[in-house]
Amino acid sequence: MEDRKMIYVGNLPAGVSTQHLNEAFIPFGEINQILLPQTAPAKATDTAQAKNFALIEFEDNEDSEHAIFNMNESEFFGKVIVVHWAKNSHKQLVMGK
């Protein structure tokens, strides 16, 4: 069986934190990590902003599947989010590989 623990959460609203994501996704199972990539500030006076997606890795494949089933196309802080299996290209964007 393929190891599918990492999910992609897209269309996130501005200002979402890893804590917000943890609170929303923890009901589906134990979370190993949440990756919320940041954009580099345009100027020295700017602050880094989160991109509009995150990757969430669960402890178990079944928990990931439940999160996708229950959270895809749900409302999260006023926006409809997209939740599906993370692709290698998503992981490469976050991890720089």
Description:
With 97 residues, the protein is α+β, with helices and mostly antiparallel strands. Helix content is 28%, strand content 29%. The protein has three helices and eight strands. The strands form three sheets. It has a four-stranded antiparallel β-sheet with strand order 2-5-1-8, sandwiched between helices. A two-stranded antiparallel sheet has the order 3-4. It has a two-stranded antiparallel ribbon with strand order 6-7. The radius of gyration is 14 Å and the shape is globular. The model has no long low-confidence stretch (mean pLDDT 84).
Labels describing this entry:
alpha+beta; two-stranded antiparallel sheet; 28% helix
Query: Total number of β-strand segments?
Result: 8
Number of continuous helical runs: 3
**Order of strands across the widest beta sheet?**
2-5-1-8
Q: Which residues form runs of ≥5 with pLDDT under 50?
A: none
Could you say which overall geometry the principal axes of the C-alpha atoms support? globular
Order of helices and strands: EHEEEEHEEEH
Strand content: 25-35%
Radius of gyration: 14 Å
Q: Overall pLDDT, averaged?
A: 84
Helix content: 25-40%
Distance between the termini: 25 Å
The oligomeric state is single chain
What summary fits the major beta sheet? 4 strands, antiparallel
Estimated structural class:
alpha+beta
Sum this structure up briefly.
The chain has 97 residues and is an alpha+beta fold. It has helices at residues 18-25, 61-71, 88-95; strands spanning 6-10, 31-35, 38-39, 49-50, 53-58, 75-76, 79-80, 82-85. β6 (75-76) and β7 form a beta hairpin.
